[in-house]
Task: inverse folding
């Protein structure tokens, strides 16, 4: 018989190390006695590398179940999980699909209990503000979980209350967040200083305002909000009075005269939106720069470039990698090809207004490289208002769409560039559709690329004549 002692609480790392060594030694569950108390005897640093065991490969669902069940307070949880791992490694890979199996049934009940406990802590934990020795405010909460879930809930509270300095105390452990780092601590006792404050008053007022007397159901309320949590929830002080007054309030609602809904005035809303619109290209650009990219990852918004009143505005798809780094449109490989084609067509690039339908670079990271991804129709639609407002300030005589994405933004419909190439009416603008320079870069053969580039230069000459 082998005895394995893991640390108090949810010792997931200790259990994993022990399982690797037990699996390597082919030790059956019947030959292992699990206990909780002292630190794990299977410390990776203490054990020689030859005795640590190779990684154990389990189905993902088994790994997720283990992460949850180790948080349960049942003293048999590690033995049950070891039995599950043993059976999975010995031919029962789909064991978790057998819900009628006694072991699986019991582990699923443990898993459900832990998840419910985590949900209750998310929902019913309440912070109180306490003076901080440094002169600021520290927020302290007390909660009594049934299981060892303190570390499991930590990411939720860090993300939700990242800007606060807070401490969560429980009989099973504590958490301390200082806006930069998270520290775990030992079990604690309920502090006497957690008196109701303005935050408690806010919770009380909020709960009273959302309480619906017509749907009061004390049985359901006790099931969803057990009384064991009430002592730490300031809003529960109002529940008895609200339940008692519910029939009277419902009757008053039934007897009250129906109110005529207020007539909405859409004209006022439209006028208010018009007043909020930017009144210059510079103000529009500041608005664009302050806006978050629709798809995260871009370094910055890439604004249009060129003089207002330019005869021709050229609209591309979106910034590329180099444009995102420099903050200027058409400076990467496709932009260099465009510049060369403009020179061949006898067009001064400096006289044009250059911009993109989408203002942020969308990409997927592959190692150190950022690989361009085409924007979706929804993303093009998201940026369309910016583009049309931008053109309204520039007031070009002709708008040239480079590629299908730019044509989609300008027309509001999918455009087949190779078959619809040439003059086209855009939404309020005289337009011209041609290929994007990046299309030329992707052509495989030198001769094919040369013919396509000559056609592109011819399109630019024709667009200049129309303008």
Result:
């Amino acid at each position: 018989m082998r005895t394995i002692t893991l640390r108090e609480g949810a010792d997931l790392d200790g259990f994993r190390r022990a399982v690797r060594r037990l699996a390597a030694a082919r030790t059956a569950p019947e030959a292992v006695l699990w206990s909780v108390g002292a630190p794990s005897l299977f410390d990776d640093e203490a054990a020689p590398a030859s005795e640590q065991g190779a990684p154990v490969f389990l189905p993902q669902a088994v790994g997720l179940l283990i992460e949850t069940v180790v948080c349960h307070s049942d003293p048999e949880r590690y033995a049950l999980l070891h039995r599950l791992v043993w059976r999975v490694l010995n031919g029962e890979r789909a064991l978790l699909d057998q819900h009628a199996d006694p072991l699986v049934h019991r582990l699923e009940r443990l898993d459900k209990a832990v998840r419910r406990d985590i949900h209750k802590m998310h929902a019913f934990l309440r912070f109180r503000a306490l003076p901080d020795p440094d002169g600021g405010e520290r927020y302290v909460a007390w909660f009594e979980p049934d299981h060892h879930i303190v570390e499991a809930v930590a990411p939720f509270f860090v993300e939700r209350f990242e800007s606060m300095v807070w401490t969560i105390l429980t009989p099973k452990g504590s958490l301390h967040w200082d806006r930069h780092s998270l520290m775990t601590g030992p079990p604690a006792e309920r502090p006497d200083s957690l008196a109701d404050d303005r935050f408690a008053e806010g919770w009380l007022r909020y709960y009273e305002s959302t309480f619906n007397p017509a749907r009061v159901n004390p049985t359901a309320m006790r099931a969803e909000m057990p009384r064991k949590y009430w002592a730490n929830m300031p809003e529960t002080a109002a529940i008895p009075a609200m339940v008692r007054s519910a029939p009277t309030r419902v009757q008053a609602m039934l007897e009250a005269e129906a109110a005529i809904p207020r007539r909405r005035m859409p004209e006022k809303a439209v006028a208010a939106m018009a007043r909020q619109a930017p009144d210059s290209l510079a103000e529009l650009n500041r608005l664009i720069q302050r806006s978050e990219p629709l798809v995260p990852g871009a370094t910055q918004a890439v604004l249009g470039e060129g003089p207002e009143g330019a005869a021709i505005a050229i609209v591309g798809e979106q910034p590329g990698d180099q444009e995102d780094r420099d903050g200027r449109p058409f400076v990467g490989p496709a932009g260099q090809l465009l510049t060369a084609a403009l020179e061949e067509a006898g067009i001064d690039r400096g006289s044009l207004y250059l911009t993109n339908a989408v203002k942020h670079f969308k990409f997927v990271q592959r190692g150190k490289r950022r690989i361009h991804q085409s924007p979706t129709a929804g993303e093009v639609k998201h940026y369309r208002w910016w583009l049309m407002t931008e053109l309204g300030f520039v007031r070009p005589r002709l708008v040239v769409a480079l590629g299908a994405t730019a044509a989609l933004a300008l027309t509001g419909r999918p455009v087949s560039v190779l078959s619809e190439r040439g003059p086209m009416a855009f939404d309020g603008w005289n337009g011209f559709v041609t290929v994007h320079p990046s299309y030329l870069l992707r052509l495989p053969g030198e001769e094919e690329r040369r013919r396509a580039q000559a056609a592109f230069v011819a399109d630019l000459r024709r667009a200049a004549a129309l303008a």
